[in-house]
Design brief:
CATH superfamily of the largest domain: Response regulator
Number of helices: 11
Structural class: alpha/beta
CATH topology of the largest domain: Rossmann fold
Order of helices and strands: EHEHEHEHEHHHHHHH
Low-confidence stretches: 150-156, 235-242
CATH architecture of the largest domain: 3-Layer(aba) Sandwich
Oligomer: single chain
């Protein structure tokens, strides 16, 4: 009996948005060589994104932050608020910047630096298209710590509004969902969460999906940010302090 090979997956449809034509040309040259990535269009400013997305239906948008008319942060917020929006990877020259964190809060799946090696940018696009964030837990924590250090202290003894909101939102989760959310915030993979909480990987995935739906979030990065905002990352999770 001859086994029929599985059908090849369609290429990832990528939209590149950057106000520098040389950067766009470099990215097109770099990413165009990947057989499983198709650059379907380019944009020069954030105000072009809605029309390009409607016309070209990309799977992933590679979005520069600093653009003259509508910056990449505003464009990301507007885009991710739409139903069925493509994933967004923020393109930046900054390692730790409150603007990157704002993009992640808006639903970006991660960020890559403009000086990132070409192979890593290709991998980032592939991972985001597959539903995985392109941001390590260490980088997430670095960003959150950086921005937390810049935030002005709240007036009076009351909880900061962001923390109070985060605590209230997480309180709506079931106990098992809260455990999974905390583990996600600590950077654990689905397999690590499954082993620590004595459940199967599919069950972990189900819990993560329910958490995203209940909290109105887009991805695991936003779960981690919410757990951080609630002040829970200093508490021991299923794997302790490891």
């Amino acid at each position: 009996m001859t086994l029929t090979p599985p059908p090849a997956l369609p290429p990832v449809r990528l939209l590149v948005v950057d106000d520098d034509p040389l950067v766009r040309a470099g990215l097109a040259l770099m990413l165009g060589g990947a057989e499983d990535i198709e650059i379907v269009g380019e944009g020069a400013d954030g105000d072009e994104v809605p029309g390009l997305v409607d016309r070209l239906a990309p799977d992933v948008v590679l979005m520069d932050i600093r653009m003259p008319r509508v910056d990449g942060l505003t464009a990301t917020e507007r885009l991710r608020a739409r139903p069925g929006a493509p994933e967004v990877v923020v393109l930046t020259t900054f390692h730790a910047d409150e603007q990157v964190l704002r993009a992640l809060r808006a639903g970006a799946a991660g960020f890559v630096l403009k000086d990132t090696p070409p192979a890593e940018i290709v991998t980032a696009v592939r991972r985001v298209a597959a539903g995985d964030p392109v941001l390590s837990p260490a980088v997430t924590r670095q960003l959150m710590a950086h921005v937390s250090g810049q935030e002005a202290p709240s007036a009076g003894p009351q909880e900061p509004p962001r923390r109070a909101v985060a605590v209230r939102r997480l309180a709506g989760l079931a106990e098992r969902e809260r455990e999974v959310a905390l583990a996600v915030g600590q950077g654990s993979s689905n397999a690590e969460i499954a082993a620590a909480l004595y459940m199967s990987v599919p069950t972990v995935k189900t819990h993560v999906s329910r958490i995203l739906a209940k909290l109105g979030l887009n991805n695991r990065v936003q779960i981690a940010l919410l757990v951080h905002d609630a002040g829970l990352l200093d508490l021991p999770g299923p794997e302790g302090d490891a």
